[in-house]
Specification:
Layout (H helix, E strand, L loop, with lengths): L4 E6 L3 H10 L4 E6 L11 E4 L1 H10 L3 H6 L3 E2 L2 E6 L4 E6 L3 H4 L4 E4 H13 L9 E3 L4 E5 L4 E4 L4 E3 L2 E4 L7 H6 L6 E13 H7 L1 H6 L7 E5 L4 E7 L4 E9 L13 E3 L2 H7 L5 H9 L6 E7 L7 E2 L2 E3 L2 H4 L8 H16 L9 H28 L20 H5 L4 H41 L1
Parallel strand pairs: 1-2, 1-12, 2-8, 5-14, 12-20
Antiparallel strand pairs: 3-7, 4-7, 5-6, 9-10, 10-11, 13-16, 13-18, 14-15, 15-16, 17-18, 19-20
Helix pairs in contact: 1-5, 1-12, 2-12, 12-13, 13-15
The structure holds flavin-adenine dinucleotide and 2-acetamido-2-deoxy-beta-D-glucopyranose (3 copies).
Length: about 450
Amino acid sequence: MGKQFNIIIVGGGIAGLATAIALRAPNRKITVLEQSSLNREIGAIISLQPNASKIVEQTWDLAKTLKEKGSMADEGFQVYNLDGELQMRIPLSTTEKYGAERMLYHRIDLHDALKKRATSADWPGESAEIRVSSRVTRCDCEEGVVYTQTGEKFQADLIIGADGIKSVIRDSVLDTKVRALRTGHSAYRMTLPVDKLLADCKTFCDVVDPRAPYTTMVMAHSRRMIMGPARNGSVYSIVAMVPDEDMNEDSTNTSWTTHGDIPKMKETFADFPEWARGPLSCVADGEVGLWQLRDIDPLPTWTRGRVVLVGDAAHAMLPTQGQGASQAIEDAEAVGAFYADLDIDKDGLEKIKEINQKIFACRYKRATTIQQYSRQAAKPATEEGSVKIKMSPSEFMDYNCNYGGALEWTKRQEEEMAAKEAEDKVVEDISKMKIVEKEVPAQEVVA
Ligand SMILES: Cc1cc2nc3c(=O)[nH]c(=O)nc-3n(C[C@H](O)[C@H](O)[C@H](O)COP(=O)(O)OP(=O)(O)OC[C@H]3O[C@@H](n4cnc5c(N)ncnc54)[C@H](O)[C@@H]3O)c2cc1C
Ligand SMILES: *[C@@H]1O[C@H](CO)[C@@H](O)[C@H](O)[C@H]1NC(C)=O
Ligand SMILES: *[C@@H]1O[C@H](CO)[C@@H](O)[C@H](O)[C@H]1NC(C)=O
Ligand SMILES: CC(=O)N[C@H]1CO[C@H](CO)[C@@H](O)[C@@H]1O
C-alpha cells in the first residue's frame, strides 16, 4: 500500500459533510475541521431539488435513513395572491421527468444523516473524522496548510473550503476579503407543530392542509410567505420574506440573525389574507427568527493551489429557489467524481491543481446561473398595485433539475461549447458579409 491521500475539509455544514462522503475511499484520510460543537444546527425545513436528492438518496444510499426521520417528497406548488385567491397549482411529481423527487427534510435530519454517512465505519472507504471546536483562521493554499485559532496547524494534499458564506478560506484563495452582501431582503422563519396548527389555527387549515406534502406560497408585490411540512407532516415551516425597508423592525440592527418581533411581523403582513396570517398568531414568542439575507457576487475563481471552495463559500445565494443546499451537494459530487482516479503515489501538486480547475470549470456556470436567478427571483412578484403574479415557479424547474452529475455535465458543456463555436463562426461570417455591404456605400460617399 502506498502513500495516504490526506484531505482537510474546513467546515462541517451540509457542503463539508457531503464532500467528505463523496471523497471517502480506501487509503484516504479525511479530517473535517468545524468551529462549533455541531450540536446547535438550526432547525427549519430544507428542500433538495431532484438532482441533489438523487445524489443523497440514491448515490449515497440515504433514502431509508431519511425516510425513517420522516422525509417527504414534495408533490407540488400552490400559489395564492394577496386576495387569497389560488393563482396556480402545479402538481410536481418529478420522478418520471427527472429521476428523483424534490424532497423536504428537517434540516437537522439531513445534517445528521450526512454526518453519520461521512463518519460511520459501516460504509465503504475510510471514515472521515470530525474535529469540533476547531476554528480555522487562515490557510496557505500552495503549501496546503491551515491554521486554527488555538494555534494548531494541519497539512494536507487537498483542502476543501466548505466554511460557508463568511468563509475565511475564500479570502486566502482570492487573496482579498470578500464580503457577504446585504441583498435588501430579510426573512422571518418559524417552525410550528402541526397539532398546534390543527387545534388553534382552523381558518388556515381550512385552506391549506399542513400535513400534505405541498409547498404553498402567498405572493404580494414585494413580500411573500413560503410554507411547507416536514417530518411526516408533524411540523410546518413558514418563511416570510420581506424587503428590509418594508419591515417594521429596527433595520439598523446589522446582526444577521435576530429574534423576530411578532407584533411587528404581523404588522408587516397585515394586508395578507386572514387565513394566511393565522399561523403568525399561533407562534410563540421566542420561536420566530429574523434573518437578514445575504449573498455574494460570482467569484473570479474557486481554487488556488491545493484548495477548492464548495457550497456557500463559493456561491452563497438567496433562498428564493431553495437551491443553496442542492448546489452544495452537487459541488460535493463533483469533487468526488474528479478525484476518483487520483493516484497520490504518482500524482503531485500539478495534478491536484488541474483537477481543482476542472471542478471549478464544471460547476461554475450552473451554480452562478442559479445564484443569479435566485437574486432575480427575489424581485417583486407582481406589477405594483396589481395582484397578478408574473413569476411562474415551474419556469426554472427544467434548468434546476436537468443535471446528471459532474462528468455528464462537463461533457454536455463541451458539446454546447462546440455547438456555440460553430454557431459563432456562422454569425461571424455573416457579420463579415454585412461589414462588406456597409463599406460599399461609405466608399461611394467618399468617392
Ligand atoms: C433562510 C434560509 C433558508 C434556506 N432554505 C434552503 C432550502 O430550502 N433549500 C436549500 O437547498 N438551501 C436553503 N438554504 C441555504 C442552505 O442552508 C445553504 O446554502 C447550505 O446549507 C450550504 O451550506 P454550507 O455547508 O456551504 O455552509 P454552512 O451551512 O454555513 O456551513 C458552514 C460550516 O462551516 C463552519 N465554519 C465556518 N467558518 C469556519 C471556520 N473558520 N473554521 C471552521 N469551521 C467554520 C460553520 O460553523 C458551519 O458549520 C437556506 C438558507 C437560508 C439563510
Ligand atoms: C415516517 O413515516 C415512515 C413510514 O412512511 C416511518 O417508517 C417513519 O418511522 C416515520 N418517521 C417519523 C419520524 O415519523
Ligand atoms: C440586534 O440583535 C441582536 C441579536 O438578537 C441583539 O442581541 C441586539 O441587542 C440587537 N441590537 C439592537 C440595537 O437592537
Ligand atoms: C434527478 C436527476 O438526476 N434528474 C436529471 C438530472 O439530469 C439528467 C440529465 O442531465 C436527467 O436525465 C435527470 O433526469
